[in-house]
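# step 3/5: fold
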Amino acid sequence: MAGKRSIVVSDETLAPATFRLITAASAGFPLLYRYQPFDHERLSQLIGEHILYFSNPADFNDPWDCRPWFDLDQLADPDGLNRHIQWYETITRRHRPDISEDEICRRSQFFRSNPTLLRDKAIELTAELESAIHERYRVYCLGSSPDSELMWAHYAARHTGICLEFATRNALFCGALQVSYRQTYPLFDLTADEEEHNLAVLLTKSTSWSYEGEYRLIAQEKETANVPDTLVTNNHRLAMPEGALSAVIVGCLAPEATLETLRALVRQSRRQIAVKRAMRARNQYKLTIVEQ
């Protein structure tokens, strides 16, 4: 039922520049899971209209999650300092056509002579980038197994909620990206433009969270999206492919009314969605998933 175990990247030598994107398809997961409380309105949208609701990273319960911090030590190295000044010149020419070339050169020389001020500017940009991430990105978090006692307790209203089961044999969920887990915080390089590096801040968490075996769908909100070939949400919402939702699992402590409401929603949708229930084993700390 749970499929393969998630690969946890814990190599502390792994810098953001060498961050590897691993998809659910390449990792061999046929199914992914979403734990959540029972919300009739949102579940009706999901089953009846096939609409997913993506979260704003600002609402995540991990205070480090999706919050970048720049690698300021690079500014102490002459090559690193020069690379950051060239980066400043490039983005200024691109985004500030009102600033003359002479002024850009003057400011560059000023930063070169006063690297401490460039360091202070990078610290200011940390807060600005965090705000930009929260404004632009939306994330749909998924787990790699349906029988995690901790996931049911933390995300599915203490086993009274539900767990959604999604097939990955479609264009959307096959591209869900694996979260990497580390003991040290990944520092962000201002000058890097590789996709892997830019996504590292959205896909790295502490090893304390490794039990989640998490995968993520990452989208950009319609009003602020700046990449043409990305997932785009409209007010947090994204349509999913037909047949992607393969089952809904009800928690072991959920009332019978939850199960009946779920069955009614599935009947009304006329879709092939299995209804399952998590059951406590009598002699083990273990859950089994049983079709109803």
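# step 4/5: annotate
The chain has a mean pLDDT of 88.
# step 5/5: archive (pending)
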